[in-house]
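Q: Could you predict the 3D structure of Haloacid dehalogenase?
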Amino acid sequence: MSETTNMATHRDVPGVPDADERGLTQAQVAERVERGQTNAVKSSTSRSLADIVRANVFTLFNGIILTAMVMVLVAGSWKDAVFGFVIIINTGIGIVTELRAKRTLDRLSILVASDYLVRRDGRDVDVPHNGIVLGDLLWLRSGEQVPADATIVETWGLELDESMITGESRTVRKQDGDTVYSGSTAVSGMALVHVTAVGAHSYAATLTAQAKVYKKNVSDLNKGINTILKFMTLLVVPLCVLLIVTQMNTVGGWSAALASGAWRQAVVSSVAGVVGMVPEGLVLLTSLNFALAAIRLARKDTLVQDLDSVETLARVDCLNLDKTGTITDGGIVYDDFIALPACTDKRQAMQALYDLANEQSPNGTGRAVLAGLGAQGLTGTADLERVPFSSARKWSAVAFHDAPEAGPGGVWYMGAPEVLLSALSTPYPDVLEQVDGYANDGMRVLLVAHAVGPVPADFETDPKLEADARPVAIVLCSEHIRADAEPTLAWFREQGVRCRIISGDNPVTVGAIAGKVRLTGDRKPVAMDARKLPQDVDELARVLEGVDVLGRVLPEQKKAIVQALHTQRHVVAMTGDGVNDALAIKEADLGIAMGNAAPATKAVAEVVLVDSKFSHLPDVVARGRQVMANMERVASLFLTKTVYSALISFGVVLSMIPFPYLPRHISYIGALTIGAPAFLLALAPNTRRYIPGFLRRVFAFSLPCGIATALAVLLSAWFIPRMMGWDVASCAAELTSWRSMCATVLFVMGVYVLARVATPLNSWRGWLVAAFAAAGVVGMCIPFIARFFAFQLPGGKALLALGVQIVIATLLFALSVWLFPKFLPKATRTVISQYKRVSGR
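A: Sure. Here are the predicted structure tokens for Haloacid dehalogenase:
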């Protein structure tokens, strides 16, 4: 610590405690440091690197696939183990995503680290942010961020910007004895404060600690996949055992299989059934599409910090908007100068207004007035006396000693209309009514008054508002509304998303701004003071249904509002930029932070609009809808494979035949009829709104297709040997040909399923189906590919037998697709028809 000299004058200010309150001694500081009562906050998250790796590596999906891959490798058939690469890719994506989130959370800090001036042993010394201890006497100066919670001992015009904490956009004048909270910023004046809470016990650190708690978003899509995996686990283990037993019997029993090495082929055949039941491609495709959506959004200055949140975008039906930073940009603009009847010279009054605003450090309103009048050619007057604006007085004044060359003459006042009017000897009810009308329209209203005559001798030392002054003009300013706010809100209305504005500002002001941006269209927004909200969550939810705008909202209330909307099964998105928004953003299903937001807010948000443009939100939601709608479409492909693999496995167990195809067959067929087409279909434009019932619709599609495919393959497996007179259990050549023909039937059925998923086919989707069907046929004719994937082209009687089975398969597919929906419950048929109508299928 080093002693400073630039604060010597502050120690001489009358009223500053010296003898009785000389600050802590070095011994007291050392004692508090020993007890850990410093302003240091331990930076950590609830997820370590080991936790992240463990959570992504040791999953049910990875366990099933890894076990199957090891079994195949042990059997010595590496060509049939290519399906295992999906583990590496999918796990890598998950680990990288969560490590990014961990790094963001670890860097989270609401407070800006810098040196502060404290009084110790009667001297003012600089200490770092973490060196402040409980009980310190701290100098808080203009421009500094409050580092710890404190009580004001004495103040010299201290004004704080608490917007990052409370959401209130106006500065707050502080008095002796008031509490100041860490995270707020001193915008003017100074104060000596007594530190009452440090480190993890301060207000900002408490918010940070709550924001740092790791929250893993689980999408509906991933929950559906996990549900399927859990079900498949119960099915896979006993079925795998049964398959191994069956396949051992087909090669002569356990003894013969172990003696001859035929057990290897039995293991590979069993794995073919197990792997087909696991929708491994769906897990990978989900991760890849979330990542691609994030990349596309990044090109539009939108950062997605949690890939699973991309899917949440599709389901959002309730959007809570913070006013400042979202609807408005936080700036003030000068709108109008309205001369009142007492104004004899408008140009002179405007010159006085310019001089009133032209302080050494004007506030936001003053800067707006200077910019507006400066554009009209006005400049400052040199010779004048000034009483600067004070939040305690609520007005400022300038005096011109009646010299024509010096300015407009007399004393001019600018300030809060109700304060100025109440001090005048003559009532002006018409002016007050006019002021109230502008205020109710969301304007920031100032009043200019003029007192004619000589300037009082004590004008600067003991300023008073002259009772005989007359109001001469009303000055209108307003918060600058983003140009993209109204069209963006209109888009959300058209999409059926309910928008609410939640702000710490006056509800009347916020309601007026909401009306300007047509938050509710032609209907006037319903505004409410959040201080009147009920505490009970259920009652709060009922109240919120009829409210569009909430003002005077505290950070805890923002979080409670999100929780109340959740009780009504709403999927809630929350935007914001202040620390006061962090808890609500974290509680929401989808947190959206502006690029200029506080670090804490950006760290807990799933999506960050880097350039702070509200107009990006439609792109964000549309991208989420594209991913969800298309992934729901292609999920049907993968689950069809799960259904037919399970049914074929049961058929094989019951009929005690060799498994009709190899793992490499399912890899080839899956790549051409499921994996690659699904990837392309998932990238197609699709902005349909999400409709609940994902799992029901997918199964309603997959079951008939899966049943038809399973029957087609099993019929081929049973009848082809009879038609050809083959003994597939004992002849290796006939077994290879038989499996190749069964795999071909499976490929044909896969093309049929792909065509049904891709409907309508009168577009590029039809060409996509035709291209992959042709690629599959051509691949079977290329010697290298045919050898690697164990395909043989049939000829003569075998070709005829294959043709008959393909015709039967076609009839089975058409029959099952037509017949199955008739057995579905009416509610399910309604959901499916609604889905088809909005998706164009």
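Q: Anything worth pointing out?
A: The longest helix spans residues 617-655.
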